[in-house]
Specification:
This protein is 63% helix and 0% strand. It contains six helices and no strands. Helix 1 packs antiparallel against helix 2, helix 2 packs antiparallel against helix 3 and helix 4 runs antiparallel to helix 5.
């Protein structure tokens, strides 16, 4: 729920960054990175502070899975953002709301970069470590459940990185929730209904 709150804050534009303009076409190198960072700076600071708060609150607690989950999601999301900034073969742009369209100008070219490969391998390695912890823990124990959850989240994070490299439109999974797509589907259904009606009238 804490992570979802941050996601809603970002997607609504309430917590994004001080810069809300498209990237200048002549921006290169450090200038481009600085401007890109400014578009999400407030959101990243909010995530980092929340992660530190959760870690501090559960530092001596018996169950630290909640803080670990949040920290894990934070680093995997940061990895995704950096890869999209450098450039990935498959960038899903359709899921961004219209008021965040300026973020698209900061995405890198459609290409496979070494960072994407290395970050995917790193996440898989962390998943393997959590998997080993789950396998070594007593069956049915809290340690096994917690490590299994972290293992599953790492695999999902690795899958997200793989989607950035494959020609799979993961945005299509959420198309039903997009108003523009919903309108297009409604128009298509109306057109198909009209064609069927006209076809029946002509004995087709």
């Amino acid at each position: 729920m804490v992570w979802a709150w941050h996601e809603v804050g970002f997607l609504t534009g309430a917590v994004a960054g001080p810069r809300r303009e498209a990237c200048p076409k002549d921006a290169r190198g450090l200038a481009r990175f600085t401007q890109a960072s400014a578009t999400v700076l407030h959101h990243e600071i909010a995530l980092a502070l929340t992660a530190l708060m959760l870690i501090s609150l559960s530092w001596s607690a018996a169950n630290q899975i909640g803080a670990t989950v949040f920290a894990l999601l934070f680093f995997m999301r940061l990895s995704t953002k950096l890869n999209m900034y450098v450039g990935v073969p498959n960038t899903s742009l359709e899921i961004l709301p219209p008021h965040l369209d300026y973020l698209k100008s900061y995405f890198g070219p459609n290409r496979l970069n070494a960072m994407l490969v290395l970050s995917t391998i790193a996440i898989v390695a962390v998943a393997a470590w959590f998997g080993a912890l789950a396998a070594a823990a007593p069956v049915g124990s809290a340690e096994m459940v917690g490590a299994s959850l972290l293992f599953a989240l790492c695999l999902l994070g690795a899958l997200e990185h793989v989607f950035l490299a494959l020609p799979f439109r993961d945005g299509a999974l959420w198309g039903w929730a997009l108003p523009r797509r919903g309108a297009a589907v409604a128009t298509t259904n109306h057109d198909q209904s009209t064609i069927k009606t006209e076809g029946s009238a002509h004995g087709l």
